[in-house]
Design brief:
The complex is a heterotrimer of chains A (about 200), B (about 100) and C (about 525). By secondary structure, chain A is mainly alpha-helical. Chain A has helices spanning about 10-40, 40-50, 55-80, 80-110, 120-125, 125-160, 170-195. Chain A has one domain: Four Helix Bundle (Hemerythrin (Met), subunit A) (Up-down Bundle). In chain A, about 80% of the residues lie in helices and about 0% in strands. In chain A, helix 2 (about 40-50) crosses helix 6. Chain B has about 100 residues and is mainly α. Chain B has two domains: about 15-65; about 65-100. In chain B, about 70% of the residues lie in helices and about 0% in strands. In chain B, helix 1 packs antiparallel against helix 2 (about 45-65). Chain C has a single domain (about 30-505), classed as Cytochrome C Oxidase, Chain A (Up-down Bundle), CATH 1.20.210.10. In chain C, about 65% of the residues lie in helices and about 0% in strands. Chain C has helices spanning about 1-5, 15-20, 25-55, 65-85, 85-100, 110-130, 145-150, 155-180, 195-225, 240-275, 280-295, 310-340, 345-370, 370-380, 380-410, 420-445, 460-490; strands spanning about 415, 490. Classes of the chains: A mainly alpha (about 200), B mainly alpha (about 100), C mainly alpha (about 525). Chains in contact: A-B, A-C, B-C. The interface between A and B is large, with 47 and 50 residues.
Chain lengths: ~200, ~100, ~525
């Protein structure tokens, strides 16, 4: 029993367990959303009309595509196609940034209209619209933080690949980063209909 | 030392499969946006969450590779989602019936 | 054994502060957790002692009302988040889990070190919340809204501390699940795992799946205070009861994070000192998982009087009674193991029996509150305080102390004074009962908890309760002194002084850094006390 060999299955199991904690972290917010939407369906409907469906749908396309590119990157690395791998990973990080830029425009439009937590404008709307926007800001905000973290992690893994620390044979680090990125996509797959499409 | 599963063999997914899944996700996104424009009453939320769950399953099983993992991991993922469902569902004993 | 003695063990392998605080050795990390947890315990105990002193007589004595509010909040926050939740898993779980499954460390040793650092940072943040801003938090450890989103005291920093500590806890749980799945020695099947490992496994799942909900709840309080979000503010459409749901979705399962590992320790200790195979191994292991699962379904029994729906009261009351079943299964199995055993009343067993006694009182008083009707009478009274301390101090506390006396010779290769251990135990057990039983009576008489002052008719039992706290403090101090003396001057012991059969006793005491010279192959169960497996 000298140095422990890298345990592929353990690394992956650990990552999945971590993803569970992320699911449950967002889960608390989904719970709040479910309870408040159940109680105030009309106010939630009215509030959601002020969100920009086009921007939301565009961001959905961006994130789903980034999920594809990261999956392609893993596949490329496993086959030793390094150029493809860099290309796909770079693309993923680019799409992540594009998502954040979109989000930035969306949020600043909201702030511009005086819609932000605790704002004067919200205080004059029906009470439950404050809940809708409170949930909107906390859920998309927490999600945005995850997008940012994901972009940093993926860039870091690109660096590790360049340094030869993540390779065709030892690819679990990229796989785990990919799992994290897919989770970010997964959360958005639910956020999108809940905020932009409900009626 | 590890004996939960046999030695690990890489299992790269083909580009074609991945792009196919992506195309399906895109179609589903278009579908859910389209359905939301029609007023179906209560069914709207069912449709929206239903489509979202189909999309989520595609991501989890193919992109996240769960389809090809061992049973232990699959059971763990199921457990996590069951617990989440319980947390939200049981809260409705109160919220739904107050 | 001369060559073995010459070899370095994990305590001597590497000196200096850096070799400890940056160590990835699970045994060192576990010991550092234990040291900090006991330090925090002493701080929490001092606050509790102060509270009891204040409550000895009615009226405005010793502490001002605001200080009193801060003291009971800090007592709760420190004891819950810094002591009891991490207590056994982070200390003895870390030290013993790899040893008991024949591994040389946990699956992610660096992550393990990181989670210890998160604990340190979380504890430091909690300290900051006490001494900065406009006063220490005064909300009680539950941080209920709307008070927690309005009070001017330093709640924002305190909930960040809770978030960080939760993260530390999650990483420990994640590490344990992976370790138990991946690193069991050859031959160590799931049915041969020591029951302590089973209890850690069940606990780890709660840590992973429930703690994140606490994390988001803490962040939401922060958002309420700092961003003025209004999600729980009734004047802006929010519902404070939703906070209570989120809080208890974590905090009820959390009491099973607290008690399950102690139950695991009891299940490991009793067979050793009864020299008898554990009775109902499968049922004890299964009941750990059952408690973990069923314990996740009952959170709203903390909210019977809150105004939630009557249906919810009914359902959650029913579910609460179901949790009692697996707990009772364990108690019956322990007693059946003792029956006709060859009992050696060593200190670890004595603490264990103390656990069973205290836990039984705590568990049965719990059923009183689980019954929705009776709960209306005892809700928010000292009955709850008494019940909770019977379970958590009498249960988890004595479980931890039992573990300290049981594994002490393994960790330090020395023995403490048995006489002082017995004396400390009896001081503690008598003290706890004198301290907490009057609380049950006071609660039934209607004395509300968390109040600064009380009516004259409650005076005599309060006086008795305060007397009890003195015995408890004396017992704790004697125990600490005895163990400290044992570390310094105790008589050296061999690898297996109790004659136990599980894997951790097969390596040297203290264990070498990599635990086992060669990877052990497991051929017998952890409770098979056949000749040839027991004793040196």
């Amino acid at each position: 029993m000298t140095e422990m060999p890298k345990d592929y299955a353990a690394a992956k199991m650990g990552m999945w367990l971590f993803l569970f904690t992320e699911v449950l972290l967002f889960g608390g917010l989904f719970l709040l959303y479910a309870a408040y939407r159940h109680r105030y369906p009309v106010d939630f409907h009215n509030a959601h009309l002020s969100l920009d469906l086009v921007l939301g749908a565009a961001n959905t396309v961006v994130l789903i595509t980034s999920s594809l590119t990261v999956a392609l990157a893993i596949s490329a690395l496993q086959r030793g196609r390094m150029r493809h791998c860099y290309l796909f990973l770079g693309g993923t990080v680019g799409l992540a940034l594009l998502f954040l830029v979109n989000k930035y425009f969306e949020w600043s439009a909201k702030l511009h209209h005086g819609i932000y937590p605790g704002s004067e404008h919200l205080a004059h709307l029906p009470k439950a619209e404050n809940l809708f926007f409170g949930l909107y800001f906390s859920m998309t905000g927490l999600h945005g933080v995850h997008v940012l973290v994901g972009a940093v992690v993926l860039s870091w893994v690109m660096f590790l690949i360049r340094r030869g620390r993540v390779t065709q044979a030892e690819y679990v680090t990229l796989e785990n980063a990919g799992l994290y990125w897919h989770l970010v996509d997964l959360v958005w797959i639910y956020l999108f209909p809940l905020f932009y499409l409900i009626s | 030392m590890a004996h939960d599963s046999d030695a690990h063999v890489p299992h790269p997914l083909s580009y074609r499969l991945l792009v196919g899944i992506w195309a399906a996700l895109m179609v589903l996104t278009a579908l859910t946006v389209a359905v939301a424009q029609v007023d179906l009453g209560f069914l709207n939320i069912v449709a929206a969450l239903g489509v979202a769950s189909v999309k989520a399953s595609l991501v989890v099983f193919v992109f996240m590779h769960l389809k090809y993992e061992n049973r232990t991991l699959k059971a763990m993922v199921a457990l996590a989602f069951v617990i989440l469902a319980i947390f939200i569902g049981f809260t409705f004993w109160d919220v739904g019936l107050r | 054994m001369a060559s073995d003695d010459a070899r370095k063990n994990f305590l001597t392998d590497g000196t200096g502060l850096g070799s400890w605080v940056f160590s990835t050795d699970h045994k060192r990390i576990g010991l550092m957790y234990l040291a900090l947890i006991l330090l925090m315990f002493t701080a929490g105990m001092t606050l509790g002692f102060l509270m009891r002193l204040k409550l000895m007589t009615p009226g405005n004595t010793l502490l001002s009302p605001q200080t009193y509010n801060a003291v009971f909040t800090l007592h709760g926050v420190i004891m819950i988040f810094l002591v009891v939740i991490p207590s056994i898993p982070a200390s003895f779980g870390n030290i013993m889990l790899p040893l008991q499954i024949g591994a040389n460390d946990v699956s992610f040793p660096r992550l393990n070190n990181f989670s210890w650092w998160l604990y340190v940072i979380g504890a430091a943040t909690a300290l900051v919340s006490i001494f900065t801003g406009s006063g220490a938090p005064d909300t009680g450890w539950t941080f209920y809204v709307p008070f927690s989103s309005r009070t001017t005291t330093n709640v924002s920093i305190a909930v960040i501390a809770v978030f960080i500590l939760g993260f530390s806890n999650i990483l420990t749980g994640l590490n344990f699940i992976t370790t138990i799945h991946r690193l069991r020695a050859p031959g160590l099947t799931w049915r041969k795992l020591p029951l302590f490992v089973w209890s850690l496994y069940a606990t780890a799942w709660i840590q992973v799946l429930a703690t994140p909900v606490l994390g988001i709840t803490a962040l939401l309080i922060f958002a309420e205070r700092v961003l003025n979000m209004g999600l729980f503010d009734p004047t802006r459409g929010g519902d404070p009861l939703m906070y209570q749901h989120l809080f208890w979705i974590y905090s009820h399962p959390a009491v099973y994070i607290m008690i399950l590992p102690a139950m695991g320790i009891v299940s490991d200790i009793i067979p050793v000192f009864a020299r008898k195979k554990i009775f109902g191994y499968g049922m004890i292991a299964a009941s750990s998982l059952a408690i973990a699962f069923a314990g996740s379904l009952v959170w709203a029994h903390h909210m019977f009087t809150s105004g939630m729906s009557d249906t919810a009261v009914l359902v959650f009351s029913l579910l609460t009674f179901i949790v009692a079943v697996p707990s009772a299964i364990k108690v019956f199995n322990w007693l059946s193991t003792l029956y006709k055993g060859s009992i050696a009343m060593e200190p670890p067993l004595l603490f264990t029996l103390g656990f069973i006694f205290m836990f039984s009182i705590g568990g049965l008083t719990g059923l009183v509150q689980g019954a929705a009707g009776a709960d209306i009478h005892v809700h928010d009274t000292y009955f709850i305080v008494g019940h909770f301390h019977y379970v958590i101090f009498g249960g988890t506390g004595l479980g931890l102390f039992a573990a300290m006396h049981f594994w002490f010779p393994k960790v330090f290769g020395r023995m403490y004074s048995r006489g002082k251990a017995y004396l400390a135990f009896w001081l503690l057990l008598v003290g706890m009962n004198v301290l907490y039983f009057p609380m049950l009576i006071l609660g039934l008489m209607g004395m509300p908890r968390r109040y600064y002052d009380y009516l004259p008719e409650y005076a005599s039992w309060n006086m008795v309760s305060t007397f009890g706290s003195w015995f408890v403090v004396a017992g704790i101090l004697l125990m600490f002194w005895n163990l400290y003396q044992g570390v310094r001057h105790g008589e050296p012991v061999g690898r297996n002084p109790w004659g136990a059969a599980s894997l951790e006793w097969e390596t040297a005491s203290p264990p070498p850094t990599h635990n086992f010279p060669t990877e052990p192959v497991v051929t017998h169960g952890p409770y098979d006390f056949t000749p040839g497996t027991a004793h040196d």
